[in-house]
């Protein structure tokens, strides 16, 4: 075996190979980092979502870098291209050598060079060379070695090898990288953008019905690769998918229509969906095919996979009642989720219906277990003014349906509301809940209105309407003064009337000035005390004023019931509890940003199923690449290529055979010595 230094061309080739490997590893590292970013950061979301998450400045910076579409960003595709080219060149340059090496057993080595190996041995056999050759050949074959024999004038050389899969693993692993990268590009947004460019299509950034979108925003059914969403309402069919990109959408015509016959969902006790499935019919020309699509159980038709992604409201019919807070006549009307209705000088947008609301009904500071992150008691602790209790155990309970809507003014500004259909029991009392928030980034703040003795909202509404009428406030003040004037001190009645009327007027907001921060309720009383009462007297005056306010509101409640033709409320614990909660609720209602409440009377639920449809031509390449990668890595890490040479020459008397053997390996390890010892014992008939 020659041990001379490599020629300059071979050395240069080796350096080029090492440089290429380092370059490929560096590119692969960058791709891994970018893939982590693409996994952590949700891709292809609307730009507004990123602005809410990162702020305007960083949202724009990340957008310019392309972090919202990492897998189709130009810099990512350039790196992929370099990595594919670099890895392909490595394969092209080394594959012929590996193939040639697989065929080469190196049986032409000189027998003297065997002494230069680390693992070597020499011995004699009693058999003649021909018999020794047969015995050694059988032994090596039994041990899993593949051998080739070369006859020479002075002896016989046996060249054997084992673990040739090590070099095949190199080709498999590098080929896997190329296949996975190409498959990933074929299934990504890059192919969609390329198709749009080739077909002259544009992104759609407006709003409206899918049927109204022009053809320049639609891709044909022949598009080789896409991944989008299709929303289908029960009883309807759809054949167009929406491909979402950060700056807009593009429509994808499907080669078939999907009809949703029925959508079913089951829930855990926590409110989390346990399972949901869609019973669909695929309409392909004049043929139909029924299928059931479940999570992780897609239906595949014409190379397009239909996955169960999620579900939403499909346009449920809502029967609503508008309840004015000033006591005007209620107005009943109907609407469907997803529609807009004129609502006075505003627009009513019906956003959604939620039939099941499993909430944490323990203390308001509990963390909540509902998967939608709606901890009702925790949210109510931040409602418009009322207090709350401390920590406690979670108590999960389905509080019934709720619906959400927006009121949008002429300037386009909208407030979002979320109202519960049924009264909710909190701290042993029943309340109707109406939530409001200014922006989607905020939590809902809930106005909780106590239910009356009939479990209805009518009692609270009567009291709220009566509070806004000056004549009833004055009558309630006089009634309170008559009942609270001590016997034998009639001169105090006039003063009590004045004080009670003043308290009711402040509480109702009728005395509020434009410059006042408090427009009514308990904050207005607090502002009055801080402004007009000396500090040493504030605690006493506050206690007296609240007692007068509570008594006056009770008389106002009785007057409102009398005007409605109802019997006076009983003076008992239930009425006292109602009035205690009503005081807080009335105070909060004066800051409610709408002149009326919307109450859900009934509904007809209509579900819609959201499918993800995907045509993935690169999927098979990725699967094949994954298999090759596993095989290649396993072969390179756990399979060692070993070569063995056995030289057989006749002894001096020609009756026996002199055997000289040596072994080499691609990686030196302790098990090589053990293996060679076993070979030595088997070939030379020795025990050590």
Task: Compile the SSE list and pairings.
Elements: H1 8-40, H2 47-54, H3 56-65, H4 74-103, E1 119-125, H5 129-142, E2 146-152, E3 155-162, H6 165-186, H7 189-199, E4 218-219, E5 226-233, E6 237-245, E7 248-267, E8 273-284, E9 287-294, E10 299-301, E11 304-313, E12 317-324, E13 331-336, E14 340-343, E15 346-354, E16 358-360, H8 376-380, E17 396-398, E18 402-408, E19 414-420, E20 424-426, E21 429-437, E22 445-450, H9 458-467, H10 470-484, H11 492-508, H12 521-532, H13 538-563, H14 573-589, E23 596-604, E24 607-615, H15 619-638, E25 642-650, E26 657-665, H16 670-684
Parallel strand pairs: 4-7
Antiparallel strand pairs: 1-26, 2-3, 3-25, 5-24, 6-7, 7-8, 8-9, 10-11, 11-24, 12-13, 12-23, 14-15, 15-18, 16-17, 18-19, 19-21, 20-21, 21-22, 25-26
Structural class: alpha+beta
On the 0 to 100 scale, the average pLDDT is 84
Intertermini distance: 27 Å
Strand content: 25-35%
Q: Globular, elongated, flat, extended or rod-shaped: what is the shape?
A: elongated
